[in-house]
Amino acid sequence: QVHLVESGGGLVQAGGSLRLSCAVSGTIRSINAMGWYRQAPGKQRELVATINSGGTTNYQGSVKGRFTISRDSAKNTVYLQMNSLKPEDTAVYYCNAEVRNRLWGPYSNYWGQGTQVTVSS
């Protein structure tokens, strides 16, 4: 009953910007960490950025200073502002959220379908 939907991907030239959004819907008691991951062709899925419920952020080294993750708790939405994009940023970007849908118990990880980001030279 938890659904994550990404938006904002597309094609952009090197040096350009994109803003990704991910809205979480369904039966939600609370959300702990939210984050963005990406997977380029032939490579492992890797962390891009995460943000916990207190606002603490974590970035992969190659995007630090260029990307900014943020969240709107009232809307159950996480964002990724991507500036100074490089061709090596090309990948499918996946949204992730740790969601608890009951009053007590563990959080479970949920993933979006992914959105393609392509950066041309």
Task: Give the tags.
seven-stranded mixed sheet
Mind sketching the topology for me?
Blueprint: E1 2-7, E2 10-13, E3 18-26, E4 30-39, E5 46-51, E6 57-59, E7 67-72, E8 77-82, E9 91-100, E10 108-111, E11 115-120
Task: Kindly describe this structure.
- With 121 residues, this protein is an all-beta fold.
- The chain has no helices and eleven strands.
- It has strands spanning 2-7, 10-13, 18-26, 30-39, 46-51, 57-59, 67-72, 77-82, 91-100, 108-111, 115-120.
- Strands 2, 4, 5, 6, 9, 10 and 11 form a seven-stranded mixed β-sheet that branches. Strands 1-3-8-7 form a four-stranded antiparallel β-sheet, with no helix packed on it.
- β7 (67-72) and β8 (77-82) form a beta hairpin.
- The protein is elongated.
- The termini are far apart.
Gist of the model:
The chain is mainly β and 121 residues long. It has strands at 2-7, 10-13, 18-26, 30-39, 46-51, 57-59, 67-72, 77-82, 91-100, 108-111, 115-120.
- What's the total count of β strands? 11
Order of helices and strands: EEEEEEEEEEE
Structural class: mainly beta
Number of helices: 0
Report the span from N to C terminus.
40 Å
Indicate the mean pLDDT: 96
Q: Whole-number radius of gyration?
A: 14 Å
Largest sheet: 7 strands, mixed
